[in-house]
């Protein structure tokens, strides 16, 4: 007497294999669709903008004439903005993560804070623009300055850095803590000499990816009144400024078709900067990450 119904097993196996093939091709088509859309977008951008991309484009200011327009002020403005955003967001983000993971008591209040930090990471960027306009531009009277823009962008990416830093700290095994305490180290010495060195690769990776998002944002800076047409470079953090996304937005809004080609050249420059930043993040993750 056989205890296994071979026919039933054969039918069940056939159904599972059929479902597997259906979902396999469904996922393949979804991936292929995304690749085709991305390839079409890149092809259109490069074919339109490569003719305007030269050294003069990188070293010239914006102009009313498309053949004389450049992206120099926008590049320098973006670098000024990142010079303010990076230290503020990293210091506050890492400090918050250390407090929540190492010092804060695990209770309803800390869980409430954790949930809200995670929710803030998904808030539309224009909301942070309204917050920056209210607090930094009007209440603190910073005006349309690099400082106001940098602090606004810091608010935007702060939740992302906090979550990334928390995940990096959580990945450190308890044995590392116990070994440090067994050697007589205090809690702060353990954090400074054991936790942070081990978590820095993950923290830097998350921080660079967050800054990559910030450098491509437009809505928050438009809300605080960043200048769309500028023919000078910022001299300090209190100067007016523009950034590459805003300059590209300004060109695409022009009725002349030539300005659309200039905008495509600006998009190429912005893509190159984003690729460089993301490549640095991947390099740090692969080269310096310690696996326990």
From TrEMBL:
<feature type="transmembrane region" description="Helical">
    <location>
        <begin position="261"/>
        <end position="284"/>
    </location>
</feature>
<dbReference type="InterPro" id="IPR005672">
    <property type="entry name" value="Phosphate_PstA"/>
</dbReference>
<comment type="similarity">
    <text>Belongs to the binding-protein-dependent transport system permease family. CysTW subfamily.</text>
</comment>
<keyword id="KW-1003">Cell membrane</keyword>
<feature type="transmembrane region" description="Helical">
    <location>
        <begin position="79"/>
        <end position="100"/>
    </location>
</feature>
<feature type="transmembrane region" description="Helical">
    <location>
        <begin position="120"/>
        <end position="140"/>
    </location>
</feature>
<feature type="transmembrane region" description="Helical">
    <location>
        <begin position="25"/>
        <end position="46"/>
    </location>
</feature>
<feature type="domain" description="ABC transmembrane type-1">
    <location>
        <begin position="75"/>
        <end position="280"/>
    </location>
</feature>
<keyword id="KW-0813">Transport</keyword>
<dbReference type="GO" id="GO:0035435">
    <property type="term" value="P:phosphate ion transmembrane transport"/>
</dbReference>
<keyword id="KW-0812">Transmembrane</keyword>
<dbReference type="InterPro" id="IPR035906">
    <property type="entry name" value="MetI-like_sf"/>
</dbReference>
<dbReference type="GO" id="GO:0005315">
    <property type="term" value="F:phosphate transmembrane transporter activity"/>
</dbReference>
<dbReference type="Pfam" id="PF00528">
    <property type="entry name" value="BPD_transp_1"/>
</dbReference>
<dbReference type="InterPro" id="IPR000515">
    <property type="entry name" value="MetI-like"/>
</dbReference>
<protein>
    <recommendedName>
        <fullName>Phosphate transport system permease protein PstA</fullName>
    </recommendedName>
</protein>
<dbReference type="GO" id="GO:0005886">
    <property type="term" value="C:plasma membrane"/>
</dbReference>
<feature type="transmembrane region" description="Helical">
    <location>
        <begin position="221"/>
        <end position="241"/>
    </location>
</feature>
<feature type="transmembrane region" description="Helical">
    <location>
        <begin position="146"/>
        <end position="165"/>
    </location>
</feature>
<keyword id="KW-0472">Membrane</keyword>
<keyword id="KW-1133">Transmembrane helix</keyword>
